[in-house]
């Protein structure tokens, strides 16, 4: 009798554990930053409504930058997230098992090299020997590489100061660095609050795509959820493009920015998420090759090896007008 009771308790415990695991699997964990369409999607709540029909919850986690977000993906704390162009290159080089899922159109004005308003720096050539703050491995890292190449300055001839955005702004404000390479909304905030001067944005230097990535295991196990997220990102992006004033009013308090600054951020974004095309993968390959040539990553990469191929049904749906 005692054995039977113990066995029943064990069975109940196993069922409870299984139910708990099943419940955990029904939460999709998304990483976002203070920029881009995901913050609008989070504010509108349409993804939660869509996935709730299938019993799936959404959990949001904010990250200060792309490298930190991809580390979250790599260690399994999130399933899906968004970054700029460069972080996935560094993550792939470090062996992270991630896949590119989708991208936004180029937004080259949403990142820039800033200098103080009264700086003597007037051209890219003046950056030689200067201390330049940036978040290592972030999207602006490639902008800096391209800007220096345009000016004929070897990367070794500057003094990179690798700092996350908040620390970089503090260093910029107190004059501890000569320039700051940064993206929106930090870029817009520095322009409006500090009267920082734009030495150059990414126009003609970098596309500044936003990329959506997932862990390979999540994309493989939950392709329909991945497709639903991309579809909702695309949908809310189209709405945002047509209603920038409403978007700015919605995200300004989330970004802790004045409305006019939020409007600047919103209007510089790219909208219209699509699955990864061969052309976009080829552009990303150029970025990887550039960092390999500079020996900032340890080995050559093949971008197409980490591009997710959605099921045919999702590709067909995405192609619908």
From TrEMBL:
According to the UniProt entry, where is the signal peptide? 1-24
Q: Does the keyword RNA-binding apply?
A: no
Subcellular localization(s) per the UniProt record: Periplasm
Q: Indicate where this protein is primarily found.
A: periplasm
Instruction: Note whether Signal occurs among the keywords.
Output: yes
What SUPFAM superfamilies does the record tag this protein with? Answer: Periplasmic binding protein-like II
Q: Which family does the record claim for this protein?
A: Belongs to the bacterial solute-binding protein SsuA/TauA family.
Q: What is this protein called?
A: Sulfonate ABC transporter substrate-binding protein
